[in-house]
Amino acid sequence: MNINSIQSQILSMDKNQLDTIIESVKHRRNALAHLKKNEFSVGDKVNFEFKRQIVNGMVKDIMRKNIKVQDLDNKFRVFNVHPSFLTKGGK
User: What is the pTM of this model?
Assistant: First the structure.
C-alpha cells in the first residue's frame, strides 16, 4: 500500500467514509503523541527550538498534553512544550 493508492481511494470516498477516516487519523495522532510523551520523565534533560534558538532544559512536570520544561540557563523561564518538539539530551 503506497501513498498514491491511498490518495486515489480517498478521492473516491463519500462524506461518511471521509468522516470515518478523519476520526481514525485523529485517534492515531493522539496515540502517537501519548507514546512520545511517555518517553520523558521528570528530571530528563531535553532541548527544543524557540525563536530560532536551541533551548536546553529539564522536564519539571508532565501534563496531559504538554511537558513543562525549565530553561537550564535561566531558572525563571519555564515553557509548556508539546512532546513532539522535544529531543532528549542537552547540556
Answer: 0.72
